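Could you please consider the sequence and fold following this short note?
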Amino acid sequence: MFKNFSYKKKFAYLVVCGGLLLCLVYYFSINETIKLRRNYLELQSRYNTVSDASSSILFYEKELKKIDSLIGSNNDKKNYTQEELLKKVTDFGRSHNLTIINFPAPHKHVDNKYRVYTYEASISGTYNNLLRLLYELEIGNYPGVIKSANFVLTKSSGQTRTMLVMTLFIQEIKDIKDEKD
């Protein structure tokens, strides 16, 4: 069949067939590469999900330990409400340039069937930031109730500048029979 063709036609057919063959090989190899790339990306996303899941598991284990410590703790030895208040004030203070000056142990008072905890916190900073903190504590989901907020300008010995100090008194009332002693 090819004997009747001239060298020019044979060469043209060879170029066309070679081009088609090259296109087919290229198409199938690229197609396979694309499939492999999709598989790789899918496996990569699964791997990231699994590594995120392990960090989530660690987070939830810590939360579970915290909840377990709350359920089985003695409120006189470890007062979670005070820790929560300190954490909230500290986190807010870091972002708004506030300084905790005084944070003593809570005052406890027993009255009939109830135990009243009074927490005191003295914080210094600008007036607006102190008001923002007070507002956050009032609207936040916090177990205590703000009973008093006092603003005082103080001047420490050795300092020439005065600073504004807000003293908070927060009370929490607990039923004695609900507490584990």
Observations:
- Residues 98 and 152 are 15 Å apart (CA to CA).
- Confidence is low (pLDDT under 50) at residues 72-78.
